[in-house]
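dumping this here so i dont lose it
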């Protein structure tokens, strides 16, 4: 059993990435090379995290098929299928001075959003409701003393 947030993430990945590509295929016709190309495409288009999640959903689905004897082997386990590594880089928190400069760089009515977001350690997209892959430009950020 997984927590509700993870279940939602898996369902979304199944609906958006797995079913559109493999949903109408017979399981025995899915080749490891197709899965490898699919994972690589997801990584290039959406990033490693999305590709890994979609792979986990696909892999798990195929494992159930193996257990139910619908297929003999899980093609997602083949050596040719390369799942992107997690990018566990070091995260550096902004100093209080940088946060204050960013907060003050917004109109006063938005100060609470930036202040609460910084205090809670939220990413900028989580605070603003921006799409996940949107980011503040480096030029704008550098004006406020960020990295």
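and the seq i came up w/
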């Amino acid at each position: 059993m997984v927590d509700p947030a993870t279940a939602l993430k898996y369902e979304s990945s199944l609906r958006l990435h797995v079913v559109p590509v493999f949903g109408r295929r017979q399981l025995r016709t899915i080749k490891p090379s197709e899965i490898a190309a699919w994972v690589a495409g997801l990584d290039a288009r959406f990033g490693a995290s999305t590709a890994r999640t979609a792979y986990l959903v696909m892999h798990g689905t195929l494992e159930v098929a193996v257990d139910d004897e619908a297929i003999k082997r899980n093609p997602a386990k083949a050596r040719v299928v390369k799942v992107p590594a997690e990018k566990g880089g070091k995260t550096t928190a902004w100093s209080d001075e940088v946060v204050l400069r960013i907060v003050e760089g917004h109109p006063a009515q938005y100060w609470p959003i930036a202040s609460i977001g910084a205090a809670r350690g939220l990413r900028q997209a989580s605070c603003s409701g921006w799409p996940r892959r949107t980011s503040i430009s480096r030029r704008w950020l550098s004006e406020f003393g960020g990295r």
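The CA atoms of residues 49 and 86 lie 7 Å apart.
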